[in-house]
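SAMPLE LOG
Freezer: B-3
Tube label: C17
Construct: single chain, 516 aa
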Amino acid sequence: MNLNEKINKIIENLNNKEFKTVINSCEKIIDAKIENTIIYNLCGKAYQNLALYEKSIPRFEKSIELNKNNYFALNNLAISLKALEKYQLSEKNYKKCIKIKPDYLTGYINFANLKEYLNEFEEAINLYSSALRLSTGKTEAYIFSKLSRLYLAIGEIKRAREFALKCLKKYPTETNYYELFSEMIDLNKDKQFFIDMENLYHNQNLTKSEIINLAFPLGQGYDKLKNYKKAFSFFKKGNELKKSQINFNIDDLLTLTESIKKTFLDLDHKKIKKNKSKKKIIFICGMPRSGTTLIEQIISSHFEVEPTGENNVLSPFINKNYLKKYNLDKEKIHNDIFSAENLFQDYVFNSFDELKYTSKVFSDKSIQNFLWIGFIKFFFPNSKIVVTERNSRDVCLSIFKNNFIHGFMNWAYDQKDIANFYNIYLDLINFWKKNYDDIYTIKYETLIDNSEQEIKNLINFCGLDWDPNCLNHHKNKFGIKTASITQARKPIYKSSKNLYENYAEYLEEMFDLLKK
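STRUCTURE (predicted):
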């Protein structure tokens, strides 16, 4: 078998997802001192598909060394670098890739995905727009949906609607495009769309995932129409089907929170002096749907503050260094707390550098922050912690009404699971408040009733001079990726209080279990 035949066989193995076979075949050829740019690229691709990114990189680099115009290898190298959080090097290789091959659609899409991940939404839009000129069919619809979400994230609703409608026009039975458009629906203008969506929902040939895609937006539509009985029927169906697709055990969370409390009990952060960075993070902690997005919009409207959204930087470090099967390594954590070094803080700010954050004050509303308040107090001594509170029934109702993307939200599709999660959350928050007296609590309902004074108090706690822009948070152009995407673009409104009353008769199981 000559080299070309071997390459064709390796490509066949790769397409069949026989990655270990690909690696063995490529490494044998490499060991035989045969230097071929395609072989090195295929070998790297197989490592990459097994999430062995560190091993893939030297293979891609060698492929490029052998052929500096190998845009496939440049694209693949950029993917691995992104996976390893080397975002600036990833960007550098994407630029080389599309410079060599200006019509390489995959390169544009992957580069745009990187920019979207980095919250550089305008640049992502430009790259997707370039890709659009090269695309057809399903790829074109994918780009339409991406552009719609990006315009929605930055508050350009008209443009977002335009691209969502293009998706629906091209693929009128694709349920995920109905779900997308529902995020910007105007029930006065879009009556036919709503009718079409419900008609599609009753199609007997839909899969579970397709029904889920339609059930939640239909529920939200009927919620807006104040037909709460029908809205609940759709939410109930969506939640039942979503729960059937996931695996969640509340005991795992309980094990983790008990381990957290044992680890940080009786540790006095005021007596332990870790080196402080000149940079400061304002951590916004709270239940999902409790107002964390709104609070970040307010704080990040301040001229000194750079928002990072749900960057999820803390969790990977903790998972890698301190966590094993829902139990913290208490001894290692205590050793690191009393160490002169502060590797955790260094890691986070190095990550911020990679993400190209340039301020000295940041906001962070990552969804798991409430678990890590003890780590924050010791390893980020210059930080501020804000905890959001909202009527527990409104919080849990709002969770029940949403289909989440984040895997951490796998508890959100069952009344009992939601209530139990909330109770465990509340218990841990009370533990933090008992141990640390410098945690600031802001109540959603109080903020709504007395916005200006509450915002001024909040900004003062954050150690910032007053900036009147914080009263115009709805004009903040920072991209929002969460389920609060449309609400946070509006001025503060009072109609979001006590919404649970509309569903009290349907959610008795959940509401009766809540401790607060």
